[in-house]
């Protein structure tokens, strides 16, 4: 009996199980991130406008920075300044840059890249115009320091470009931005050769403020970074920006809903970016040393002052009465500066090739090693044409170094702290820029070979340091600091990790 009772039960149970349909699983809605949208939309008309407008920030920044190199001989004569006083002007500009670089970076990560870029240009243009009315040397130093504070926010333009560009285009478009820095440098040197001898250095400063004022108006055509909006939870604004870009590029958006990544805690806030200190030291050292070599006519470090310098000294009674060296630039000096400045773009095609084939680290290591060599070659006794050739190549190398460090820094940091990371890196770089004037404008006159050896040694250390960097950013998507991509992120983005692989220090 027990067997006969159990068989029907078993049959019924099996029949019920076979007739019961499985419950349908709910389909997960499609989602996409800003990175997916940027790659899907691709490169188009929006990015060309972005490249032209944000790239032009380099024109304004180059004019403000290079202004000191062309104005220094004039204010030295007008206010009878000694070497250390001339060097102090440049140092204080970079001191202001150093202090406000971190401050603007913090604000940009909190309130937006676009707002800080706009404020920094307003600030810089205002104090630059005030500088032209400086009644004394002290006022000149103070106002140029305030200009340096404003210029420190210009790096937000590079961040906006980096965050909007598709991955495969970053290695090409970001190095091309060097063209705008070159244009600004050539423009201020060309203007100086015409304006200073005719209406004076004060009008040169006023004219140099015009590009920044024009850009303030042009910024309204560029939106806030979509990556920033998503990182702060404002996905609707990010979606509107991406749809606007898709329409401009005549492209399509990816299917699904724009999602905000889940953020994790960042255990190690900063990479050690002090290796960039040496790159900045070499870059501004090369620029200021070029001007100093021309002003003092020091073609060979071991020889006496040249006949040109003696002739100027004999014909200038004011200089004979003054303990300060006073020799304004001649027309030939401006031409030499223009030729050497053009060198900044000479290696740009090779720099782009190296960044995309060799990667950021190896490319930087090679160019830094070559920079060390050409600093030493400046001590070789040569003709004026030989000096111009050495300066040409040297400026090309230091420009390639600076180009690479800016690209690498913008790529290696996550969106939530990219502006702060760039600000910190820029701040540390300006320490090198603050020291460079005292080497190029003070030590150079006392020990020519000693100054060149110091620049060369720093470049060698930087070359080794760049080669040992643990992270390569070539072809790497911009990190958002989200849990889903923790495996592919550097140690500083992994929850609960320590800086077991810090960047090398220089």
TrEMBL record:
It is a multi-pass membrane protein. The chain crosses the membrane at residues 48-72, 84-107, 172-197, 203-222, 446-469. GO terms for molecular function: transmembrane transporter activity. Residues 497-506 have a biased composition (Polar residues). The keyword Transmembrane helix applies. Keywords: Membrane, Transmembrane, Transmembrane helix, Transport. Pfam families: MFS_1, Sugar_tr. One of its GO terms (cellular component) is membrane. Residues 50-474 form the Major facilitator superfamily (MFS) profile domain. Its main location: membrane. CDD domains: MFS_SVOPL (cd17442). Coiled coil: none annotated. Gene3D superfamilies: MFS general substrate transporter like domains. It is found in: Membrane. PANTHER family: SVOP LIKE, SYNAPTIC VESICLE GLYCOPROTEIN 2. Belongs to the major facilitator superfamily. This is Transporter SVOPL.
